[in-house]
Amino acid sequence: MFSGIGAIEFALQRLNISSEIIFASDNDKFVKESYFSNYEIDDERWYDDVKNIDGKKYINKIDLLVGGSPCQSFSMVGKRKGFKVV
Question: Is the confidence at residue 48, as pLDDT, over 80?
Fold first, then answer.
């Protein structure tokens, strides 16, 4: 959830932790483009709005659910005010 560009997924790969992306989400179209370029996922498993995720669909399919925190304060596309905004 709140997948962003996939930093958590990248960290799991770097740590050689086997994982499978069941679904991902973010509301930024450029982030989605980047994510799709780096990870095997299709539109059916991508959510632009987390409110549209039906959790029942994923019962017994997920062992670990991870979510990224907002990064606008640090991102090049944000205002880059760092912890002052947080």
Answer: yes
Residues identified as active-site:
71
**Helical H segments across the chain, by residue range:** 7-14, 29-38
Which residues touch 25 (CB under 8 Å, ≥6 apart)?
1, 2, 3, 46, 47, 48, 49, 50, 53
Its pTM surpasses 0.85: no
Buried b / exposed e over 56-84, threshold 16 CB at 10 Å, is eeeeeeeeeeeebeeeeeeeeeeeeeeee
Residues with Cβ within 8 Å of residue 18, at least 6 apart in sequence: none
